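User: quick one, sequence for these tokens?
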């Protein structure tokens, strides 16, 4: 069972790698990975008071898997982002892999995401505003991109108050 001490921190080389798709044959493993993602996210929430989603590579699981828990727990397998809006939003982004640092980024105001759930069924969501931003942040993790790499400029960093 993974814990907060297993969460990869800024600078860890695995955070910059592109993840492999989850295969149908790995569905039994997905349940264990999701349990670990859930437990670590709960620890982050308790310690730092934030956390709505976590990507598998943050725990060294190099698979295209996101666990989101905003209103209810959702397993997002092999997501595909489409239809990003031209309209952008600016915001201070945070990340569990560097919980005390905020980074100002630009994200698409809305998008569509298509993904498989834990039962290997397809879903398509249209997300906007904070959920669009959240999905882009987690999706970036699957491609080895951190919000520090999307900073608007060299003054787009601050410590969490």
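Assistant:
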């Amino acid at each position: 069972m993974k814990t907060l001490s297993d969460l990869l921190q800024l600078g860890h080389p695995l955070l910059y790698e592109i993840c492999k798709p989850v295969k149908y044959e790995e569905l039994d493993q997905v349940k264990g990975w999701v349990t670990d993602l859930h437990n670590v996210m709960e620890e982050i929430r308790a310690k730092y008071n934030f956390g709505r989603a976590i990507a598998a590579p943050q725990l060294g699981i190099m698979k295209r898997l996101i666990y989101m828990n905003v209103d209810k727990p959702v397993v997002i397998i092999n997501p595909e982002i489409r239809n990003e809006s031209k309209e952008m939003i600016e915001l201070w982004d945070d990340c569990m892999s560097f919980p005390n640092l905020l980074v100002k980024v630009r994200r698409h105001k809305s998008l569509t995401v298509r993904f498989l759930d834990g039962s290997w069924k397809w879903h398509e969501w249209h997300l906007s505003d904070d959920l669009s931003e959240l999905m882009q942040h987690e999706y970036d993790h699957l491609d080895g991109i951190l919000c520090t790499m999307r900073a608007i400029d060299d003054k787009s960093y601050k410590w969490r108050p």
